Amino acid sequence: MTTLAARSLSAGYGTRAVLHEVDLTFALNGLVALVGPNGAGKSTLLRAFAGLIRPTAGAATLDGVDIASLSRAALAARIAVVPQSFDTLFPFTVREIVALGRSARLGLFARPTADDMGAVARAIAAQDLDTFVDRRLDALSGGERQRVVLAMALAQEAGVLLLDEPTAHLDPAHQIGTVRRVAELARMRGVVTLAVLHDLNLAALADRVVVVDAGRVVADGPPAVALASDVVARVFGAGLAVAQVSGRTVILPG
Amino acid sequence: MRAAPAIAVLVALLPLSLLAGILVGSVQLAPGDVFGALLGGGDPVAGVIVRDLRLPRVLAAALVGGALGVAGTLLQGLFRNPLADPYVTGTSAGAALGAVGMIALGSDLAATVVPLAAFAGAMVSALVVWQLARLGGRTTVLTVLLAGIILTSFASALVTLLLFASDRLSLRLRAVLDVLSGGVAVRATSEVVLAAVIIALGLGLAILIGRRIDAFVFGEETAATLGVDPERTTIAVIVAAALLTGAAVALAGLVGFVGLVVPHALRPIVGATHRTLAVASFFAGASVLVLADLGARSVLSPAELPVGVLTGLLGAPFFLVLLVRARRREVA
Question: What is the pLDDT, as a whole number, of residue B238?
């Protein structure tokens, strides 16, 4: 079973420290939402787990192994990332993009194996993209594109899935659709799944919410606990109210 | 696979283009004499014209066009933008500076040194453009083009300086003019063979790293999380593009826009994946330049224009149209 952890992890950019001695452990517990105000350090935490930045102290670990010590290819086989923005000026088709998820497993001289093609086909089917495979990315709607990127990450068949604001460019219905899709994947497939989310109401759809403020974890637990009104008031200011509507946490203007 | 039949057609077109290039010239030869000469017999005058003049010239044109097509594919991938090629990024100008510098040093005796110097010049300018274009963390087509303009001006200023400063060079004005105007006129067979070897290396490298470039065009961080090392990919792309550009410039000087137009025109037909596009661009670029050279030899016949003049005349307006379209879509 995959375990992703931060051990006294500090990280930043240049001289600017963003995260301060963060300790977190993620195993299989459904969808984890990372929330916090702008600049709190949630994307930085995700980037440290993705191996895109090196911690200034402490470590991000995957099954106890320091992520910074793994090669790009080794990491890509175990951790998949859905980036915040994903676009190109070139006419790549949906199938070609999903197949990029296998890049790490293909040597320079290798041809895609039956395994690779199977993974691509499964990812395409899982995101209901079968009728889109030969379409170009720029011919798709925002919601369809998000499914393509998700399928690309799924094709990596990694034990960890990291998503950086996967709902950023979507309308409300697709935002909820995307989060539900990801949550279902996290629960059904045994993939450790972490998503940075801006919208607290979307975060409330997750199984676990980690609230980051000023580079530290200030709350961690099921939505009802981590998004309790005192936490929300302290971290996000007084403009918000928390209500429980039919067993679900809802954030409203206060 | 819509790409496979398209590539088959492009491969089949190349021998036809070569044949057309050999059949037509300022001296009118009957097709029978041309075929006779190609097979090693026939009329001795026709033999000299066909084997020693036309054949090396069309082969050189094919190699140069193919190399520029592949280099354009690579640079468009590197800059994530269809408005890049060796010419507009200043890579060709760097190669030309290297070549002219070597001619100034008097090393035109050792034909192997000129392509090496052209490769070094191409390498340096591609690295500089890459660094300039990345300032501020993201590459935009305008920074790439501006960086290309700056490099091209700088390189041509240095070439002019060399022209005035070097006595040796003023005695070799014709060789320098050939580099600057982009012609594939009379070439020694050894030069053509050497260029073919370098270009084969560049094409092979392009095919090997094609799949990595596919991931790379979605951004360096995305490439990294897909398991593709962005730094290594960048270096490999620049080396391959510099090999191809260096060999092309050493053989034919500055031939503009082929590298830009060919991949751009092929993408809607063979798709965007770089491995396929590189192969298709090689064959299409080769045919295009052989036919362009045929045109350049014919328009003012019996005078022969350097093919670079023709590709510039046709390519620059095409480039303008692309630029205007890109600006309209606000992607530039």
Answer: 95
Residue among B219, B228, B267 whose CB faces A91 most closely: B267
* Cα–Cα dist B147/B92, whole Å: 13
Give the mutation candidate from A75, A86, A89 for the B interface (greatest B CB count, under 10 A).
Answer: A89
Look at chain B and report how many structural domains it folds into.
1
A17 with A56: CB under 8 angstroms?
Answer: yes
Q: Which residues of chain A have pLDDT under 70?
A: none
Q: Residue B158 sits in which domain range? A: 3-331
Q: How many CB atoms lie within 10 A of CB B105?
A: 14
CATH number for the domain spanning B169: value is 1.10.3470.10
Q: Which phi and psi (to 5°) does residue B188 adopt?
A: -70, 145
Q: How far is B210 from chain A (nearest CA, A)?
A: 9
What residues of chain A lie within 8 A of the CB of B227, using their CB? 72-73, 75-77, 103-105
pTM, 2 dp: 0.92
Query: Distance from A111 to chain B by nearest Cα, in Å?
Result: 10
Q: B16-61: per-residue pLDDT in tens?
A: 999 999 998 878 888 888 888 888 877 888 888 888 888 999 999 9
Query: Are B215 and A156 within 8 A, CB to CB?
Result: no
Strand, helix or coil for residue B41: coil
Pick B218's closest partner by Cβ from A50, A76, A86.
A86
Residue B332: closest CA among chain A residues belongs to which residue? A89
pLDDT tens-place string over residues A68-104: 999 999 999 999 999 988 888 899 999 999 999 999 8
Rg (CA), chain A: 18
Q: Is A208 left (phi over 0), alpha (psi -120 to 50) or beta?
A: beta
Tokens 């190699």 correspond to what residue? B63
Contacts A–B by Cβ distance under 8 A: 82
pLDDT tens, position by position, B288-328: 999 999 999 888 877 888 888 899 898 889 888 888 887 77
> If DSSP states are collapsed to H, E and C, what string results for A59-108?
EEEECCEEHHHCCHHHHHHHEEEECCCCCCCCCCEHHHHHHHHHHHHCCC
Answer left, alpha or beta for residue A160, where phi above 0 means left and psi between -120 and 50 means alpha: beta
* Dihedral angle computed from the Cα positions of residues B98, B99, B105 and B110, in that order, rounded to the nearest 10 degrees: 130
Residue in chain A nearest B267 by alpha carbon: A91
The distance of B226 to chain A (nearest Cα, Å) reads: 5
